[in-house]
Amino acid sequence: MHTSRGIKTASPSSDQLNDCNCTALRKASRRLSQLYDSALAPTGLKSTQYSILSEISRWTETPPTVRQLADALVMDRSTLGHNLRPLERDQLVSMAGVETDRRRRHVGLTQKGVATFAEAKKLWRTAQNHFEKRFGASQSAELRGILLGIAADGAFAQPMSASASTR
């Protein structure tokens, strides 16, 4: 292991070296989720719930539909529905049907949801600052850009041909 900007990185001789991008990303994601979950704990929110509330809050004109929210979060609707249930139970979000199409539902923040999100955002900022101090502000911005670029690229979700997997 060697250290870059205070972050231990695996060296080629390390037993922990894994050439699977997905595994490395999931490991890092779990570690960062621990950081953010710990920071958000006083609000009772997990980082996944915070990200949902955060995304809903970005929709200032009209609350997003479940499909729009799922697409924005790069989640399938079933998983999003599973994650919305506790938020709805705790009265942080409300679901309202669309008059012209009862199958479509808008997801909005309740007053309690707005207040909880405002409180959580301060705690999230503490975790964000901690990460950026440890990893570096410019490296953090670069990492976010790369990860958001991957998230936005639907080609990563497409099945590969057999010839593409051997390249």
TrEMBL record:
It comes from the Bacteria. GO terms for biological process: response to stress. Pfam families: HTH_27. GO terms for molecular function: DNA binding; DNA-binding transcription factor activity. Residues 18-152 form the HTH marR-type domain. Gene3D superfamilies: Winged helix-like DNA-binding domain superfamily/Winged helix DNA-binding domain. The keyword Lipid biosynthesis does not apply. InterPro entries: HTH_MarR-typ, MarR/SlyA-like, WH-like_DNA-bd_sf, WH_DNA-bd_sf. Keywords: DNA-binding. SUPFAM superfamilies: Winged helix' DNA-binding domain. The keyword DNA-binding applies. This is DNA-binding MarR family transcriptional regulator. It comes from Granulicella mallensis.
